[in-house]
Write a structure and sequence with these properties.
homodimer; 64% helix; mainly alpha; three-stranded mixed β-sheet
Chain lengths: 501, 501
Amino acid sequence: MDNKFQELQVRLSEIHDLNSAAAVLGWDQATYMPPGGAPARGRQMATLGRIAQEKFIDPAIGRLLDDLRSYEESLPDDHDDAALIRVARREYERATKIPPALIGEFSEHQAMAYDAWTRARPANDFASVRPLLEKTLDFSRQLADCFPGYEHIADPLIDFADYGMKAASVRVLFAELREELVPIVRAITEQPVADDSCLKQHYPEDKQLAFGQDIIKKFGYDFNRGRQDKTHHPFMTSFSLGDVRITTRVKENDLGEALFSTTHEAGHALYEQGIDMKFEGSLLAAGTSAGVHESQSRTWENLVSRSRPFWEHFYPDLQATFPEQLGKVELDSFYRAINKVQKSLIRTDADEVTYNLHVMIRFDLELQMLEGTLAVKDLPEAWHARYQSDLGLTAPSDVDGCLQDVHWYGGWIGGSFQGYTIGNILSALFFSHAEKAHPEIKAEIAKGEFGTLHNWLRTNVYRSGNKFTAPELIERVTGGPLRIEPYINYLRAKYGELYQL
Amino acid sequence: MDNKFQELQVRLSEIHDLNSAAAVLGWDQATYMPPGGAPARGRQMATLGRIAQEKFIDPAIGRLLDDLRSYEESLPDDHDDAALIRVARREYERATKIPPALIGEFSEHQAMAYDAWTRARPANDFASVRPLLEKTLDFSRQLADCFPGYEHIADPLIDFADYGMKAASVRVLFAELREELVPIVRAITEQPVADDSCLKQHYPEDKQLAFGQDIIKKFGYDFNRGRQDKTHHPFMTSFSLGDVRITTRVKENDLGEALFSTTHEAGHALYEQGIDMKFEGSLLAAGTSAGVHESQSRTWENLVSRSRPFWEHFYPDLQATFPEQLGKVELDSFYRAINKVQKSLIRTDADEVTYNLHVMIRFDLELQMLEGTLAVKDLPEAWHARYQSDLGLTAPSDVDGCLQDVHWYGGWIGGSFQGYTIGNILSALFFSHAEKAHPEIKAEIAKGEFGTLHNWLRTNVYRSGNKFTAPELIERVTGGPLRIEPYINYLRAKYGELYQL
C-alpha cells in the first residue's frame, strides 16, 4: 500500500509542478513580460495546462485511487494521507467527468471572449460580445451537465470555487444578509458622505510601496518566501509554499489603492505561507475554497488595516511618511476617509458595507441566466434595473454595467461571485473566534503587533491548507456552520460608531 | 505527408513550450525568486525537463521521422521543412541513444556536484569535490560511450555544443591560433601595463544601466521583445522569438563590468531576436552552436563596443553622463583602459588577446582527463603547471585555479570551453565578410549607427537560426571553412596600433 500511495504522490507532485510552472509564466506575463512575448506565452501556458490535465485524468490515477480505498478507510478521517486520497479522488472524479474536447473548445472560446471583452468594454459595445456570452452560457450549462443529479444547474459550478455550497444555501445566506444589510446601508447613506479628499492628494509611488511593505512585514508576510511586484490587476500567486508572491497597483493620486490592495493580497499570501510545509508539492498545499481565501484577504484588508486600533498605531508613521499631505489631517478624518460608505456603480471600488449588494446582484443574474429566465440579450437592462432597485443608481452605459467584471467574459457563468461575500461573512466569523480565544487581539493591533492574531489564524485556518473542505473547516474552527451574526455585529459596531447610528 | 509533417510540428512545438517554460523558471530563479523558492524550483525545472525529454524520445516521433524521409528527400537541402526534419532527426537520434536512467542519475549528480562546488570554491577545498568530479568524469565517459564509433572520446561531447567539430579539428585550429597569439601576447606584455584606473572610480548603478540600455537599443536590441534585469552571472535567455531577455551585473567601482556584459549579452540576444519569425516555436528557432552564438556576443562586445570608432562617437556621451569621473580623461586613455592586455588568472576577466590561452588550457585538460592521461586528483597541479607555462602565472590557490569555472562542476567534462575561442575566431571572420560587402561599416559605427552591420548579420547569420549547422553556415556565408586569419589580422591591427608593435 505504501508503494501505491507513494506512486500517487509522485504523480500528483508532477502535476503540481506543471501547474506551478504555469503560475510562474502567468506571474511573469502580468509583471515583467515584454509585449512581444504575449503570443508564445499564451501557447506555452495552454500547453502546460493541457499536459497537466492529461496527466491528471490518466486512468492509472483512477486505478491507484481504487487500490488505495482500503488504506484510506483504515485511517481516521483527519489523517493527512486519508485527506490527500479524498481530495485527489474528488478532483479526479470531477476532472474525468468533463470531456477533454469540451475543455479544449471552452478554453479556446474563453480566450476569444476575453479578448473581445477587452475591446468591447472601452467601446461600450455589449452587442459585439453578446453572441460570445451566449456561447459562454451554453458552454457553462454543458459544463454543469457533466455533473448530473444537481439540485440547481449552478451547483456544480459553485462547487468549483466553493466546494460544498449550493445555489439554495447561498440564496438563504444572502437573503438573511440582505435583510440586515439594507437598513444599515439606508441609515448610513441618509447621512452626508464622508470626505476622503485627503486620500486624493499626490503620494509618490516609492514611499507608498515602502509603507505598505513595512506593514505587511509586520503582519508576518515573509519576504524570504515571497515578494511584491507591480501589475495592472493585483493578485496573489503561489509557486510553492516557499514562494508566495503578491502584486499591487499604485495610483499616485489615491493613497488607498496600493495600501489596501497590498494588505488584501498579503492576506491571501499569509494564508498560503501559513500552510504546513509537510504538504509542499501536494494537492493539500492550497487554500480550501474561494470563500475561505477571500475571508483572509478581507481580514487583513478590512478587519485589520481599516480598523481604528490599527491606525491609532500606524497613523503617526503615515503622517511622518507624508507630512505635507497628512500632517494636518486628524486621525478621525483619515479613519472616516478610508471607511467612506457610498452607493456606487463599481464592485471593486465599493466599501465593505455596500460591497455585498454588488455581489448579490451578480449572483442572482448568473442564476437567472443559467435557469433560462434571463436571456443574455436582456442582461444589460436587467443589470440596470437591479442597480436601480438595490442601489438607487443607474450606470450611464454598459461600461460600468454588465461589461464591468471580467469573470463572465474570461471564465464562465455560475459560481463566479459568491465567494467574495462568503469571504466577508467568514472573515468576521473567524475573527470573532480568534478574539474569543484571545481578547487582547485588538489591543495588540493598537500596538502594531499582529502575532497573536496571525498565530491563531495559522493554527486554526492556514495550517491545514486544502485538507478540509470549507464547511468542514468552519465546523472545526467555530463548532457550527457559516453564520452571519458576527459579520453583522462587526458592521453595526464599526459603522454605528462612525455614523452615530 | 502534410499531416505527418504537421503532427511532427505539433509534437515538437509542445516540447519547445516545455523547454521555454523551464527557461522562464530559470530566469526567474536568477533574477527575482525569493530564497524560499529554491527547493521547489529545482524540482519544478527537473520535472519540466524530464517530461520534455520523455515526449521527445517517444517512439511516435521516430516513426514520424521515418515516414517523413521520402518527403525530406523530395525537397532541396535548404528547404525549411527539410531542415526541420533533418535537425529533428539529428536531435532525436542523439536523445534516444542516451538511456533515460543515465540522464536522471547524471542530472542528480550534477546538482550535487554544483552544490558542493559553491561551497568548495570559497573554502579552497578541492579535496571535497574531487570524488564528485571523478564521478562526473565517469559519467562524461559513459555519455560519450552512448555514441560509439567516435575518433576521440570528446567528440560526442563537443558535438553537443558545436555540432560538426571534433577534438582533432579543434586541436589543429587551436595550435594554429596559439602559434600566432603567443608572439602577440609576448610583444604586448613586454610593454608597460595600460592604466585602467579611470574605470575603477565610483559609477552610480542607475546611470550605468541607462547608458548601456541606450547603446544596445541603438545596436537594434528590441525592448518590445526583450528586457534587461540584474543577476549574479549575466546571461541571455529566450522564451520565444518575441521574448529574448538579457541580464547584467553592475559594479559601482568598475565601469567595464555592466557595460561590456550588457553589449556581450545583447550580442547573443540580437542573434536570437534576428531569427526568422516563421521558425517560432520550432527546433529551428535557436542559435546553431555555442561557437556561432559566442561569435555574436563577441562581435558586439569586442569588435563593436571596444573599438575606437565606437568610442569616437559615444565617448562624449559617456563623459557627459559621468563628468566628474571622466571629464578630464582623454578618449585615448579611456580606449587604452578598456583594452588593457594583461596576463591574468581568471578567464572571465581576461582581455581579448589572452582570453583564448585560458580556453586552450581548459580544452587540453578536459581532453587529457577524458583520455585518462590526467587523473582528477592531479588536476590542481596540472592546472598550475599550465598557467605557469602558458601565462607565466601561478594561482595562489585552487580558488582561482581549477575551482574557477562552474562548467565541470555543474555540467560535464568535455566540449565545455572550445565554443568561446571558436566564437572569437568566427566573430572576426564574419565581420571581415560584412566589411567586404559594406566597407562603410566602421565609418557608420563612428557615427553611432549600426544598421548596416546589424542587417548584414541578420540576413546572413541570424535569420536562419538553427537551420544550418555551424560548418554549413560558415561555408554559406564565407565560401570556406572556419579560418583564423581575419581574427589574427584584427588583433594585429588593433593591438599593433595600441601598442605600436
